[in-house]
């Protein structure tokens, strides 16, 4: 069998004959405790008339004596706990509300008016979507009007659909949509759709002119430091301690300024800064800022900076701007001086060098001029180069010639000669060894000088019966001949004759230039001399013949017992060797001196 439901959480207190029960730690909600339930404390019970809140109950006067913080039990026996009882109470409440005068019926947006079957006299109907309102009078609904709040003001939007009471702003005024039908594209102030809600106000009257700065004076004063009192207008806005500048009306570059005091019509400036000079009787006044420490005057054009070099650096203006990385000369187009301290620069006159670069730019016309000087050049390589850019195109670098270079750095000497009007030049080629002669370009003809090799000096063999002196070798023959360009052809073989070998006497060597040969001359004989009344004999060996380009071997005399001497070799080109020498007591063969080899000089006459 199910036990009777109860609730006993917390404790309660009630006065003797009291009608209010106060709970502690109780939760007397609509579920736990309801009117009609039984409250029991000890052996005394009473009915609960009402539940005020979770901690207060209303009961009939309590007859069980005063109780404080005691246990209790609520027996859940209220008729309201029977199924359907609460619903009937709620229905009764709703019916009472429906029968109340002033009750609102709501009209669906799709209806033009309230349902005639609804409502009682004195009640109202409202359509929230339109704001329309009706009142029920004499058994029927009567339209009262439209009651709707104003919309949020916003600038008029021609594409927006406006409804009744929407607000738009235009031209400083605000308007409310008054047409019952929604619409768009009807700009205010169209009175069919809009009513003025708030109109833009007119500009107010000019206010009272306040005090201002400025002012003038005709007081005659000389520009200088110290207190300077000016008579000026009254009612100006200057406060004592303001910094004021008095400027000449005729010449604004003449002025004086300082802290001022002002009273009535007298403005006194304690001058601590001036510009210009003279006595002036027409002044304008203006407020100025307090000068900073070490300030500059615009009239001095920066001549008053303490350190011009540091000032330039602070401004990023350098006498020489160092570009330490690889630089592209084509990209350096701002006027200035630059040091290119890397050897990997691009578009410099040539690679692998350090450069000093000067740039002059005229940006309005698109002209740039560059001058480059080698920094790490040698005493013979300190060239200066020059080029320009026009219309975005760089033209080639050009070398500026040094006056002491004697035109050695010309890129094309032949072209230079043509430009100077020179008709030709002489070019000397000397062959001292065999080879091939290739005529130079633009040759007109050539003068060939051929010198044969020198002959060797004569050698001697020892002989007990004779004193022998070898003759000197002959010099090589020499020949001059003019050959035209046609006779020379494309190339000629050059064979240089060797000097005679120092063994036995012989003729000079042969030299050939193409088909032309030349033979050397014979050398000098040796000689002897016997001294009177003695047996001494002075013997001289033959001296080699000289040539225009060499000396023959030297002849030597001797008279010593068993004296012998080989011949001396020739020097230079085309000379004969000296002869050998042997007296009767010589023990071995004696060789003559070797002749020197020949040569060929070719003087080319060139057109340019």
What does the model show?
5% of the residues lie in helices and 35% in strands. The chain is mainly beta. The chain folds into 6 domains: 6-89, Elongation Factor Tu (Ef-tu), domain 3 (Beta Barrel); 99-146; 154-197, Ribbon (Seminal Fluid Protein  PDC-109 (Domain B)); 216-290; 313-405, no CATH class; 435-605, no CATH class. The longest helix has 14 residues, at 85-98. The protein is elongated and about 195 Å long. Mean pLDDT is 83; it is low at 504-522 and 525-535.
Question: Short description, anyone?
Answer:
The termini are far apart. The chain has four helices and 48 strands.
Give descriptors for this structure.
single chain, 7-stranded mixed beta sheet, Seminal Fluid Protein  PDC-109 (Domain B), mainly beta, Elongation Factor Tu (Ef-tu), domain 3, 6-stranded antiparallel beta sheet, 5% helix, 48 strands, 608 residues
* Overall outline: elongated
Count the beta strands.
48
- Assess the beta-strand content as a share of residues: 35-45%
Poorly predicted runs: 504-522, 525-535
Structural class by SSE content: mainly beta
How helix-rich are the residues, as a percent range?
under 10%
Report how far apart the termini are: 145 Å
Tell me the major beta sheet: 7 strands, mixed
Mean pLDDT: 83
- What number of domains? 6
Rg, alpha carbons: 68 Å
How many distinct helices?
4
Spell out the blueprint of helices and strands.
Blueprint lengths: L5 E2 L3 E4 L5 E5 L13 E4 L2 E4 L2 E4 L2 E3 L8 E4 L2 E3 L9 H14 L5 E3 L17 E4 L4 E6 L2 E7 L7 E2 L11 E4 L2 E5 L16 E5 L17 E2 L3 E2 L3 E6 L11 E6 L6 E9 L2 E10 L3 E2 L2 E5 L20 H7 L6 E3 L12 E5 L14 E8 L4 E8 L9 E7 L2 E2 L3 E3 L12 H8 L4 E7 L3 E3 L5 E9 L16 E2 L8 E7 H4 L3 E4 L14 E4 L2 E4 L7 E4 L6 E4 L8 E3 L5 E2 L5 E2 L5 E3 L7 E2 L16 E8 L2
Parallel strand pairs: 10-11, 14-15, 26-27
Antiparallel strand pairs: 1-9, 2-3, 2-8, 3-7, 4-5, 4-9, 6-7, 11-12, 12-13, 15-16, 16-17, 18-25, 19-24, 20-23, 21-22, 21-25, 22-23, 27-28, 28-29, 29-30, 30-31, 30-32, 33-48, 34-38, 35-37, 35-48, 36-47, 38-39, 39-40, 41-42, 42-44, 43-46, 45-47
